[in-house]
Fold this sequence. Notes:
Elements: H1 5-15, E1 42-43, H2 44-53, E2 57-58, E3 62-64, E4 67-74, E5 77-87, E6 90-101, H3 107-116, E7 121-125, E8 134-142, H4 152-168
Amino acid sequence: MIRFATLAAAAALAFAAPASAQTPGLATGQTAPAQTAADPGVSVEAVRAWLTSKGGTVSAVNREEGETWLNVTDGPLSWVIFFYSCQADVCGDIQYAASFSNPGVTQAMVNDWNRERRFLKAFFAPGEAGGDPTAVVQYDVLIHSADVEQLADPTALWLDLVGAFGTTVGYFQASE
């Protein structure tokens, strides 16, 4: 599996920052401008190279019907990053996604996850033509600069929670 110990440590430090820290210019009650385009954004190829440098097995860039994505394999886990709000392959937001199919997946499992957890949203898809039902989980991230290292914390969170989701829907065995 991808070794994200550094990412996990960075996430822990980020959450330990003082709550009183404020964004310059917003302390006076101003609102942040809405992000509407790929400025700022990350390059699709930079994200691919970054994930590969962290030990992931990352596909070539996939494109179909206006969609752009990367397939990532990390040990027993496979997931996808979709790119949105792109201009010239620089994208303003991304979405992590994974799906888990097995005969035991139920709508109740997915509903319980959505009720009890934050950050990752999930939905249920019944099996078609005798196939297994599927639980899909997604995590959206807005990009705030061109630096791909900004994905360290979101990726660490994704990896932690997507494994927990896989266990919740019976794809992985719970560790004792």
